Amino acid sequence: MMTNICTTVLLNRNFLTATLLALTLTACSSNPTVRSDQATDVNFSQYQTFSFVEELATDRAGYTTLVTQHFKDAISTELAARGLRYVDSEPQLLVNFNSNVTSRSETRSTPTPSYHYGYYHYRRGIVYAGFPVYSNDVSTVHYKVGTVNIDLVDAAKRRLIWEGIAEGTLKQNDLEQPREAAARTVALIFEKLPTK
Question: pLDDT tens digit string along 13-27?
Fold first, then answer.
């Protein structure tokens, strides 16, 4: 009987620890943090055309990567929805972007109760409940963080006029479906783009 009680307490403790860890990870994998910065003296409604810079930050070794294609498609969709038109030559806006994925580790401590019975240990489970003593379960969590920057440059002045940045913890689904993840992230970033 005593073994069953101890086993139940241990299983409940492990379940509680796993549940807290899962909730913490879920909270970390919510939408990314998005911020932007802009030149204060720019009227964004004056721009009607855009193109991409020749050497995008996501291209390596002299060829266009799949990441580049995903982001170009998503950015083109967002800019077209805002009335801008893609052109091959003499654009009013130049677009550059970069994405980066880094691995991070975090050590987490979860308080865990155990019960101490002291001198009256022989009465436990019958008339004496004991008192809780707290210790910490320490675990290390490994996860990936993605960062995306999008720059809009006034092509005539060669001047950065707007920058949008998103940073957040990547979920497994984001890594398995990068096209969809890029489209969602770009849409969130362009919500910060001013209209005037």
Answer: 443 333 333 333 334
